Amino acid sequence: MRSALLLGAAALGGCAWDGPMSTVRARSDFARDILYVYGIITWASVAIALVVFAALGVVLLRFREKPGAPLPAQTHGHTLLEIAWTVAPALVLLVIAIPTIQVIFRTQVAPAAQALDVTVRGRQWWWEFRYPSLGVVTANELHLPAGRPVALTLEGPDVIHSFWVPQLGGKRDVIPGRENRLTLVPDRPGEYWGQCAEFCGASHANMGLRVFVDTPEAFARWLAAQRATPAEPAGLAAEGKALYARSACVGCHTIRGVSAGVLGPDLTTFGSRTTLGAGLLPNTIENVTAWIHDPGAIKPGVKMPPLGLTEPQARAIATYLTGLR
Ligand code: CUA
Q1: Using a 6 Å cutoff on CB, does residue 120 contact ligand 1?
Q2: Rg (Cα) of the chain, in Å, rounded?
Q3: For position 102, what pLDDT does the model report?
């Protein structure tokens, strides 16, 4: 009994109603549309289950074997019954299909004229976010202003990924050589977690993301900080900058005014992000030091190689990078 309770508690522990990846707490028009279809299907399923279990109960009680009871009437072919069990599922499918198709079309509409354009690029194993109209590039943490329509263009250079932020809407694939679109209006400020939802290689499970829906004022502040030129570092951070500039980092990463690599995440305002390695770890000097020292030990398959830096060198670069905000 006790082990059954423990098992039940452990199983249900995964079912947080209001967790950061809840699918039943819609926080955008798109998510609400999907929740509406989900509701129809759930309640239709409940109604069907009640009918089926009631019929099963009646049959089990009425036709159970009793001593001396005669064999019940044997039926072969019953036109009315056969028509009924063909028509009934067709009606069920129709009830599901009409709202589903309506919602599919509604979620594919062209974005509003005042929509904020964001290009989402899925990469092995991180996310790049470009705001072409604002001149900002960032990674793994997407900031959006509440109440403003956003038009996401999904594309990627390597393999198929899937962009999924449950509270803001359903999954949409990110397919190389193709531009998929997703338009939505996030309506409430908050932090929403997302995850790549298409198996894409060794660190698929480590391809998380965060969406910060900000008030318009907070978004304006974030934007200004992203565009500002970071202050010239001093002390250990200055050492870190010099080390960064003459090491292999510059081949893959962009830091505006310092380097212009395009293979890895843009680090221009790295210190303003809350996490490291696509949502894997908190963005602290300790974690960044360990990451620079040997990224593969933290994230399997990661494209960034160990750079052969000493621990103090890695710490200096980590101090520089976490100060970029
Ligand atoms: Cu990207 Cu799974």
Answers
A1: no
A2: 27
A3: 93
Same domain, 27 and 168: yes
Dist CA 244 CA 268 (whole Å): 13
Same domain, 109 and 201: yes
Question: Same domain for 201 and 252?
Answer: no
130: domain range? Answer: 21-54+95-227
Cα gap 160→169, rounded to integer Å:
19
pLDDT of residue 113: 87
DSSP 252-317: T-EETTTEE--SS---TTGGG-SEETTTTEE--HHHHHHHHH-HHHHSTT-SSPP----HHHHHHH
Expressed in angstroms and rounded, the spacing between residue 104 Cα and the centre of ligand 1 is 23
Residues 271, 295: Cα–Cα separation, whole Å? 18
pLDDT tens profile 253-290: 999 999 999 999 999 999 999 999 999 999 999 999 99
Instruction: Tell me the pLDDT tens digit for each residue of 161-173.
Output: 999 999 999 899 9
For atom 1 of ligand 1, the residue with the nearest CA is 161
CATH code of the domain in which 284 resides: 2.60.40.420
Question: How many residues appear in the chain?
Answer: 325
State pLDDT tens for residues 61-92. Answer: 988 888 888 887 888 889 999 999 999 999 98
Q: Which atom of ligand 1 is nearest to the CA of 205?
A: 2
In a domain, 188, yes or no: yes
Quick check: is 86 in a domain?
no
Residue 203 and residue 295 in one domain: no
- Alpha carbon dihedral 245, 251, 255, 258, in 10-degree steps, equals 40
Instruction: Tell whether ligand 1 has an atom less than 6 A from the beta carbon of residue 204.
Output: yes
